[in-house]
Description:
Elements: E1 17-18, H1 34-47, H2 54-68, H3 82-98, H4 104-117, E2 125-127, H5 129-139, E3 145-147, E4 150-156, E5 162-169, H6 174-178, E6 185-189, E7 192-193, H7 200-207, E8 217-221, E9 224-228, E10 233-235, E11 240-246, E12 249-254, H8 261-273, E13 280-284, H9 296-301, E14 309-315, E15 318-323, E16 334-338, H10 345-355, E17 360-363, E18 372-377, E19 382-391, E20 407-408, H11 413-418, H12 422-430
Amino acid sequence: MRRRAAAGVLAVLVACALVPSAPAAPAGGATADAGLVIAAIQVLEQHYVRPVQPVALVNAAIDSLRSTGPADLAEVSDGTPEASAERTLRQDFLLALRGGAGRANALAYRTTRDMLGSPRDSHTYYLDPAEFKERLDQIANKPSYAGVGTVTDTVANPAGGSRLYVAVVFPGSPAEASGLRLFDMLTRIGPAPVAPGATPLDVAGLLRGPAGSLLTVTVERQGRLVEITPTRRAIRLPVIAARVIRPGIGYLRLFQFSKGAGAQFEGALRSLDAQGPLRGMILDLRYDGGGYFAEVQPIAGAFVPPRTLLAHLYSRGGTSRYETVATPTVSTPLVVLTNGETASSAEVLSVALRDAHRATLVGETTAGALGSALFFPLPAGGMGVTVEEVDGPQYEPVEGVGVAPDRRVPITYQNVSTGEDAQLSAALRVLGGP
C-alpha cells in the first residue's frame, strides 16, 4: 500500500480495538532493546490470524540488524528452542550496537518494524511511541496532532519526476480557513522550497508544528503562485461531510470509519433528504483508510437489503459471514469514488456495494490493505496485529490486490494543473449530470 498523508492521516485498521493486557510502556524513558522484538513476537504467537514460526521471526529481526550492523551475526537454525533463539537475538542486538548500528532505541524500533513487516501483511506492523499515541487518539476521535489539516499526494510530471499537491482539505481546518484548495501544488513550506519529487512523508514534519504557530505556504494554483498563511492548531480527523453538489445529486465524503461513523452517516443522509428529493448520490471514499469494522454494517445497510453479504471472515476460530441487518433508506442510483488510498473498511464497503449491484465504482484500484486487526501496547510503542482475514462477498481476495473500479479514471497532471477533479466529474456523468 502506498503511504500518503502529510499533515495527516495514517491508514487506520479495520478493527481498531486496543487490547490492554499486553505489556505497558516503561516509565521514565527506559531504553528499548531486543526485548521489544521478543515482546512483539510473543503477541504474534498469541493473536496473529495464522500460526507463526518464532525462529523465522527471530531470523527476520537478525537480518534487519545485519543490514546496519556487523554482517556476520549468528542466525538461528530450524528446531532451535525458542528460549535459545531469544538469547541469540539479544546477543546479536548487543553486537550490532557495539558495531555502530545506531542508538539502542532507534535500533530496537527499526528491528521490530522490519520483523513485523516480514509476514508482508498490511495490518501487522510496529508503531513507535509517538505514532502509537497518535493512532490511539485517532481511534478515540481526539485531536491527534497539530497542523493545518490536509492530506497531500503526488502526481507524475510530464517533464519528469513528480509534483506534490493538496489532495484533501479537511472541513473546518486551518487549511480551509486560510484558503488552501484541492489540487494546490506545493512549492514552498515556510522558508524551505519543496523539491521536485518530494513525497508526502518528506513534508509532513514541515506542515505540522506547535498549535498557534503561523505557517507560510506557497502554492502553484492554475499557473499562479499564491501565498497562504494558515495558523496551525490541534487537528481532529473529520468523519463525514455532506452537501448537495448539483441539483438532485447528494455528495457524501466519508473520511474514516471511526467509532460512531454509522450514526453520523445516518444523520448526514437525513440532512441531504431535508434539502429536497435526490435523483442520485455520490459516496466519496478516496483517502479513507478505514476504521472500525462494525461501522461498515450500518453504512452499507442504508443502501442494500437486510442480510446482504458484506464479507467472509477467517480467524483461528473458523469462518463467518458478515451481513447487513437494517432496512435500506436510500434507493437512488449510487456512485462510489475510490483511489489507491481507499483501504480496509472502505474496501469492504466498496466491494460489497459493487457485488450487490448497488453502486458503480469510479476512480482507481483501492489499496489492497484489508484485514481485521487489534492494537497491542508493547514495552515501547505498540503494534497492529491481523486477527481476521477478510475476503469479498464472492470470495474475491482484496489484501494485496485491491478492488478495481468499474470505470477507471486517474488523476493526471493536467487535472491538478487546471483544478479539475476528473473522478468527481466522471461520477456526475454516470448519474446523468454535467
